[in-house]
Each structure stands twice: as structure tokens, then as C-alpha cells.
Design brief:
Layout: H1 12-22, H2 29-34, E1 36-40, H3 54-57, H4 62-70, H5 79-89, E2 93-99, H6 126-135, E3 139-145, H7 166-171, H8 177-193, E4 200-204, H9 215-218, H10 220-230, E5 235-236, E6 264-265, E7 268-269, E8 273-277, H11 294-305, E9 310-315, H12 325-341, E10 361-366, E11 371-376, E12 383-387, E13 393-398, E14 406-408, E15 426-430, E16 442-447
Parallel strand pairs: 1-2, 1-9, 2-3, 3-4, 4-5, 8-9
Antiparallel strand pairs: 6-7, 10-11, 11-16, 12-15, 13-16, 14-15
The chain binds alpha-D-glucopyranose (GLC).
Residues 41, 52-53, 204-205, 255, 275, 282 line the site of alpha-D-glucopyranose.
Length: 448
């Protein structure tokens, strides 16, 4: 982890922020600069369309689950349109489930028959997805499930679809997890040798302890070594159960919740990425209706970047191979916001500590251009007081149209009472009464 440690001491602003980004391994700078990626969960579970864990949740046997394999035929699939949707939303990388917990492989793996090329669809999907996204300039990430509910040597545990079936457990008690780990390693080797440069690998997940699985089952240390040897520049997430091993992970991945502060380990900031869904499911879920609004999604992105993190936002394509309308609408509206505001996202990070975000606002900061961005989650009346910025601002403008925002020392309203918020180092921005266009307005401050 030494590469992403900050230097201590000195001027907080110039050292903490610039050194933080300077100290990131140069191979990973793309990741920090990108800030926004697309997760794609696609597999046989798109057919039942009721969550990617359906096999486990509904205790479905291999025999019953087979029907989804037999009918897998995404006739409307067009990777180019997926890649365009991601790019237009402002996403800079993507992570695709090459195999999820159900065990089904999206590529033509040598090591199994349980793969897309043996379904009615009959063609490798992974290759065309990777090519299409690369063509749009996005970086490539692979998700690989450590769990495998189809493999005959994957020992039955508490998450396994047959975990509650005593008879099944008894019959399968001689499964050899070593053999499964060999399969896992061979598949990861395949993924990292047959598809060119892979920028990011997302292993999912470990649950050590009683009736669970962890590093010994996956042979995690050996796996890690192989991955680093095959693709030395690659980023590896933190789910191999190697959190206490030096170099055992590169990036923290808080999932489905918003962190309150920048993620730190032993008091030091680390690379982190939160993965989030549009609704409650990763795989396509027809009847799930708790979809987040565009405003919520944009705010999630901003809040994440304001704490120096990345957002990996998930789409679950349908069994016909399309992004559904609910996803497309949101992606396109996020893209509209990004078109004018991405400058406050790409290459940005948490603002220096001496700048305090006003109420209902988030700050992001670009250490290379020395610009500070104020994201206004609610639009205030006329004035916005920024503490810690007196004498530090050269120029201010709204980001949507580059219209000037005047600023001054905090005004004193002698005849109606003074504004208590104002302290010596405060700058007051004079805002138009009407909220400017855009889901979340942003003010760009050019600092001295
Ligand atoms: C969890 C879930 C899984 C999903 C993943 C995304 O680990 O098991 O279904 O793929 O989170 O990070």
C-alpha cells in the first residue's frame, strides 16, 4: 500500500491534496481521474428476472435452473449500444460479470461446458463487450465470482442453493474445494490472458468462518500473485480475504451504502470505489420498483467524489440483451448533467480541509487546475457563505453556462441585524434568485 500513502506534515492544502494524487501509482491514475464507471451484471438470472441471487434465495436445484441456460438467447444484444450509453453518461470504465455466483460463464472457457457458447445464443459475449467498450475509450474491468453454485467441487455452504438441504449436503460431502480452486485459478488465468489489457479485477466475495469460505478455499495468496504477474498494472479489489496481508488489496469497495467520510485504513486515505444499483438488484429485476431518481444518482456521484471515491453504477441487462428503459433514461439524464459539469468530477477529489462545505453543499477539488467546485444540493436564497476562502478566490462562475458569480466579503445588514454566519475568512457568493438549469448546480472557483 505504500504507493497510495500521503506524506505527512506541511501545508495541508498543497501537500495533502497534491501529494495524495501524486503518490498514487501512475498505472492507477486513470482510475482516480475517471471517478465514474459502469458495473454490468449479466447472466442466466436475467431470465427469471428476480435478482441475481435467485438460485440461492429460492433454493433452486441445478436441474430446475437448467431451463434458464436452455432458453438463454439475447437476440437484441448489441454491445456497441451498451458502450455508447455508458460513454454518453460520462462513464470512463466498466466492470462486467464474467461469471456470477450461479457459475455461468459469458466467455468460451476451456474449463467448463457451462458457458454462453453452449446456449441457444451460441457465441462468446465477453469478447464483443470488451471490444465495444474499448472502442468507446472505456477501460476494462472484470468481475469474477469466487462463489460458484454450479461447480461440482464447490462445497455446499450456507449461501449455496442446497445449503438447507440435508440430504443434498450428505450426498455431496466429499466435494473437494481444492479442485474448485484449481478451476478458479485456471479461469482467472484465461480471463487475464485472452482479452488483452485488463485494468481492474473485481473478485466477489469471501465469507470466512463457519460454513463459509475464505482465503484457504480460494488459495487467495497464490491467486493474487498470479494476477499481478499476468497483468502487473492491474487494480485488485479487497474481497479475497487478504485484508491483513501487505499488498493483499489495492482498493476498498463499500457497497450499497454511502460512506460518511473519505475511506481510510490505519488513518491513511486509500483508493476506494462504491458500487451502487439503480434499484435493489444487480441483475435485471422486472418487478423491483425502488429505482433512485436522477437527482439522487447525481448526488451519489458528487458525494462520492467529494470524499475522494469512485462510483461504479450498475446496469442489469435483460435476457433479450438490452438495457431496459428505466436504466437508459437515467443514464441519459446523468449524461446531460455530466456534459456541463464533468469538470467538477473528473480528476477531482476531496477539497482541502480548511475549506468547509456550506449547508446542503458538497465540495470537490481539482489539484491540477487548483479549482474548487461547490455543488449545491438545494438552491439557497441569494447568498452562499464559504468559510476559509477569503482572499483565495480569483474568479467564480456557474459551471452550466460560465456566467460570472460575483463575490464579496460577507455583507453586514446593520438595520435588520447582522449575519452571524459571517466570520473573518468568509467569502460570500452572490447567487441569482432562480436556480440555474441542471440537476445539481455547480459553482467553479478559480483559486489563487
Ligand atoms: C454482492 C452480491 C452480488 C453482487 C455484488 C456487487 O457481493 O453477492 O450479487 O454482485 O455484491 O458488488
Amino acid at each position: 500500500m505504500e504507493n497510495i500513502r500521503i506524506k505527512s506534515g506541511g501545508n495541508v492544502m498543497s501537500n495533502l491534496m497534491t501529494n495524495w494524487s501524486n503518490n498514487i501509482k501512475k498505472e492507477w491514475k486513470w482510475f482516480v481521474d475517471s471517478r465514474f464507471g459502469m458495473f454490468i451484471h449479466w447472466g442466466l438470472y436475467a431470465l427469471p428476472a428476480r435478482h441475481e441471487w435467485v438460485k440461492s434465495r429460492e433454493c433452486i436445484s441445478d436441474e430446475e435452473y437448467q431451463r434458464y441456460f436452455d432458453y438463454f438467447n439475447p437476440d437484441m444484444y448489441d454491445a456497441k449500444s451498451w458502450a455508447k450509453a455508458a460513454k454518453n453518461a460520462g462513464m470512463k470504465y466498466f466492470v462486467i460479470t464474467t461469471k456470477h455466483h450461479e457459475g455461468f460463464c459469458l466467455w468460451d472457457s476451456e474449463y467448463t461446458d457451462y458457458k454462453v457458447t453452449n446456449t441457444p445464443y451460441g457465441k462468446d459475449l465477453l469478447k464483443s463487450i470488451v471490444e465495444a467498450f474499448r472502442e468507446e475509450g472505456l477501460r476494462v474491468g472484470f468481475y469474477y465470482s469466487l462463489l460458484d453454485w454450479h461447480h461440482p467441487e464447490f462445497s455446499v455452504d450456507r449461501f449455496h442453493p442446497m445449503g438447507n438441504n440435508k440430504e443434498f449436503r450428505e450426498k455431496n460431502k466429499d466435494r473437494d474445494i481444492r479442485k474448485y480452486s484449481e478451476y478458479l485459478h485456471a479461469q482467472v488465468r484465461e480471463l487475464l490472458t485472452k482479452f488483452g489489457r485488463i485494468d481492474y479485477i473485481f473478485f466477489d466475495f469471501s465469507y470466512p468462518g463457519e460454513d463459509g469460505k475464505g482465503r484457504d478455499d480460494w488459495q487467495s495468496e497464490r491467486l493474487l500473485k498470479m494476477v499481478r504477474q499476468l497483468q502487473p498494472h492491474i487494480l485488485i479489489n479487497d474481497r479475497l480475504d487478504l485484508n491483513d496481508v501487505p499488498g493483499g488489496w489495492d482498493i476498498k469497495t463499500p457497497e450499497q451504502f454511502m460512506v460518511r467520510e473519505r475511506v481510510e485504513v490505519e488513518g491513511k486515505p486509500v483508493l476506494w470505489e462504491t458500487c451502487q444499483t439503480f434499484s435493489g438488484s444487480w441483475g435485471y429485476h422486472r418487478d423491483e420498483s425502488s429505482w433512485k431518481s436522477v437527482k439522487q444518482l447525481v448526488q451519489i456521484l458528487i458525494d462520492t467524489v467529494s470524499k475522494s471515491g469512485n462510483l461504479l453504477l450498475n446496469v442489469g441487462p435483460t435476457a433479450r440483451g438490452e438495457f431496459e428503459q428505466r436504466a437508459l433514461d437515467r443514464l441519459s439524464d446523468i449524461g446531460k448533467w455530466m456534459k456541463h459539469h464533468s469538470r467538477s468530477i473528473y480528476g477531482c477529489t476531496q477539497a482541502p480541509e480548511e475549506f468547509k462545505a456550506p449547508q446542503d453543499c458538497r465540495l470537490t477539488y481539482n489539484p491540477e487546475t487548483n479549482r474548487l467546485y461547490v455543488h449545491l444540493f438545494t438552491w439557497p436564497f441569494k447568498e452562499l457563505h464559504l468559510d476559509g476562502l477569503a482572499g483565495k478566490v480569483n474568479y467564480a462562475q456557474l459551471l452550466n453556462d460560465a456566467s460570472e458569480i460575483k463575490f464579496s466579503k460577507p455583507p453586514q445588514y446593520e438595520h435588520v441585524g447582522t449575519n452571524k454566519n459571517a466570520c473573518k475568512d468568509t467569502v460570500t457568493l452572490q447567487l441569482p434568485v432562480q436556480k440555474p438549469e441542471g440537476t445539481v448546480p455547480v459553482i467553479e472557483l478559480f483559486l489563487k
